[in-house]
Amino acid sequence: MSERSAPTARKAIQDLRALLDRASRAYYLDNKPFMTDREFDERLAELAALEAAHPEFDDPGSPTRRIGGEPIGSFRTVRHAVPMLSIDNSYSAEDVRAWAARIEKAAGAEAGPLFGGGAAFVCDPKIDGVAVSVRYEKGELVHALTRGDGEKGDDITENARTIRALPLRLSGPGVPDVLEVRGEAFLPNKEFERINAEREAADEEPFMNPRNACAGTLKQLDPRRVAARRLGFVAHGRGEVSPAEWADSHSAFMEKLPTIGLPVNAGWRVCRGAEEALAYIAEFDGKRGAMPYAIDGVVVRVDHFELQARLGQTSKSPRWCIAYKYPAERKTTRLTQVDYQVGKTGKITPRAVMEPALLAGTTVRHASLHNFGLIAERDIRVGDLVVVEKAGEIIPQVLGPAPENTRARSSKPVAPPEACPICAGPVEIEEENGRETARRCVNPECPAQVREKLVWFAGRTQMDIEGLGEKTIDQIRAESGAPLARFADIFLLKNHRDELLALDRMGEKKVDNLLAGAEAAKSRGLARVIGSMGIRHLGASNAKNLARAFPDIRALMGATQDQLSEVEGFGPVRARVVHEYLHSEAGRAAFAALEKVGVDLTSREYAAPSAQRTAFSGKTIVLTGTLDSFEREALKEVLESLGAKVTGSVSKKTDLVIAGESAGSKLGKARELGVEVWDETALLAALPADRRPAR
Ligand SMILES: [Zn+2]
């Protein structure tokens, strides 16, 4: 990179920035993407490398500034230039009519000439996200604030910068000197599902709805974590704008925003009078289910800014604006049973079985009851009429007994299982503030856990073992003599071909496909393997982070808890849980067995070019004598970080002895066994530059 001459580099940087900006605009504004996410990420990485080599061309507006900066300790509080009021909610057509009548009365005689009879309103779909105010000066993004108390908000600029829909620099005709735009940051439904699937895979509590997930994300102190979640943004309102004449009505404002790079919800419309607004509201109710993000209502505003100013505001909210909220889809039905699902980590999740109810277009028979603490808190009992709601239009859940519910005197609270409902093994209860948050079967051989783990491991987004679906796993376990309880057993199925062939509906072709699928999966590498094992707090993305930090399973096993907590995406809790698993009997046995059957447990694909396998990876090394440049413990750490195993005595298994001054019997033993011996000079030459001691 450094060989590139400055003018060439500058040109390359400029071209990449322009290309990536164009790609973002095409994606978020024009809805005509011309680049895949992957391609975008690759070009972004290319640009970041160029910028790192040429800091002289630094630019705060560069798309690389979206990757996320350093974590911060806490959020700064900043005053809003124009207070960020909340909008009054209404829940009925009558509320909207009454509000519109007040407006038309206040507008008086002017309503006629100004609006051609009946006040003009702008109707805009209301996204169920988090309100954010973003300030641009001379077109540059200067800060982004949360609403806070309306007067002052939290400075979340670094997090907002990672939102690709939000331009870092405005461009286009007539960018105003100051533009404070209010909008909604949100989590698209697909991204919400992806994050929740990942959280569930890592056995973390899933988010209740996209809004909670978005709010939690924006409050992260580490912007890199925000960048890893693809938040969206649409603009829908204004704070300070200078010059003020930039737009004289909300419709003009909404028309201009996309021309300078700010996305709006394209469904907004000018409506004349309350009835037109209500028709829009009814019409949009039918469309919102198909939107890629959650819409929970419609905001109706007076279009003309002059009239807005005349109407003014109450202490809490503007008089010229009202939000109509769609009623959440709720249904009352009868809870007939509570059943249990035992997950791959042993978590026992209660699930409501109900009389079928039609909810937001789908028939719902099951709903989440989350955990036994919640059942007790809401006093939900079998036989109750219960209210079911689709939270964030996605996951049905039981809110609690319906108001009209009557109970037989004999009704009893739901008794949480004292033993695992599948294996009758012991359970462990987790509590938070005295409330039960989880209950787990702790028997590692629990058949339910074993089955769920195998199904998960073989799944498409994990090890992707062709031909080994849920049904086949059940069939092999139940009907064949082939053992299938450990991950490693999958790779030993080839020794049981005849037993597989004897199974129903398992022809030669099917069996051979499965066996070939298992062979092919052996080379997926460390990240896929550990991300597929259902280890608590370890989903696919953190498994990749581990693979980037450690060259192979030995290096990973050699890492201390502290070293793990330094890995990107890891904190003390994740580090502890993962460390515990790696060193548990079950963990050690699983990795040893996988290695024995020939599964690749290295992370070659993630090794940066400079950090590729060194002379030390996978070697068993013994240190003896004293070295000038290292304390022995420090050198041990360095070698382990490079994937070596450092042991105390020389044996036939020793690959290398590093001998310093006055080395004793170990050196003699090494010579006797013919083990390779290095002195300090050889050691220093072989160490990567960044691991050599500082002088
Ligand atoms: Zn069990």
Task: Give a quick rundown of the structure.
With 695 residues, the chain is of the alpha+beta class. The chain is built from 26 helices and 22 strands.
Description:
There is one protein chain. With 695 residues, the protein is an alpha+beta fold. The chain has six domains: 6-66, Helix Hairpins (Orthogonal Bundle); 89-325, 2-Layer Sandwich (D-amino Acid Aminotransferase, Chain A, domain 1); 330-440, OB fold (Dihydrolipoamide Acetyltransferase, E2P), CATH 2.40.50; 447-521, 5' to 3' exonuclease, C-terminal subdomain (DNA polymerase, domain 1, Orthogonal Bundle); 526-610, 5' to 3' exonuclease, C-terminal subdomain (DNA polymerase, domain 1), CATH 1.10.150.20; 614-691, BRCT domain (Rossmann fold, 3-Layer(aba) Sandwich). It has a five-stranded mixed β-sheet. A five-stranded antiparallel β-sheet has the order 14-13-12-15-16. A four-stranded antiparallel β-sheet has the order 5-4-7-8. Residues 608-612 have low confidence and may be disordered. Residues 342, 420, 422-423, 425, 441, 443, 446, 448 line the site of zinc ion.
